[in-house]
Amino acid sequence: MLTQEKTQNWKPLIKQFEKIAGKQGVIVTPEERSVYECDGLLSYRERPSLVVLPRTTEEVAAIVRICDQNDIPFVARGSGTGLSGGALPTEGCVLIVTTRMNQILEVDLENRRVVVQPGVINAWVTQAVSQAGFYYAPDPSSQIICSIGGNIAENSGGVHCLKYGVTTNHVLGMKMVLTDGSIVDLGSKVPEMPGYDLTGIFVGSEGTLGIATEITLQILKKAETVKVLLADFTNVEAAGATVADIIAAGVIPAGMEIMDNLSINAVEDVVKTDCYPRDAGAILLVELDGMAVEVEASSQRVADICRQNGARNVSAAGDAATRDKMWKGRKAAFAAAGNMSPNYFVQDGVIPRTQLADTLKQIEALSKKYGHRVANVFHAGDGNLHPLILYDESEPGALQQVEALGGEILKLCVQKGGSISGEHGIGADKRCYMPEMFSKADLETMQWVRHVFNPKELANPGKVFPTPRTCGEGAHTHNIPAELDGAMLF
Amino acid sequence: MLTQEKTQNWKPLIKQFEKIAGKQGVIVTPEERSVYECDGLLSYRERPSLVVLPRTTEEVAAIVRICDQNDIPFVARGSGTGLSGGALPTEGCVLIVTTRMNQILEVDLENRRVVVQPGVINAWVTQAVSQAGFYYAPDPSSQIICSIGGNIAENSGGVHCLKYGVTTNHVLGMKMVLTDGSIVDLGSKVPEMPGYDLTGIFVGSEGTLGIATEITLQILKKAETVKVLLADFTNVEAAGATVADIIAAGVIPAGMEIMDNLSINAVEDVVKTDCYPRDAGAILLVELDGMAVEVEASSQRVADICRQNGARNVSAAGDAATRDKMWKGRKAAFAAAGNMSPNYFVQDGVIPRTQLADTLKQIEALSKKYGHRVANVFHAGDGNLHPLILYDESEPGALQQVEALGGEILKLCVQKGGSISGEHGIGADKRCYMPEMFSKADLETMQWVRHVFNPKELANPGKVFPTPRTCGEGAHTHNIPAELDGAMLF
Question: Which positions, given as ranges, span the membrane (chains A, B) (predicted)?
Answer without folding.
Answer: none
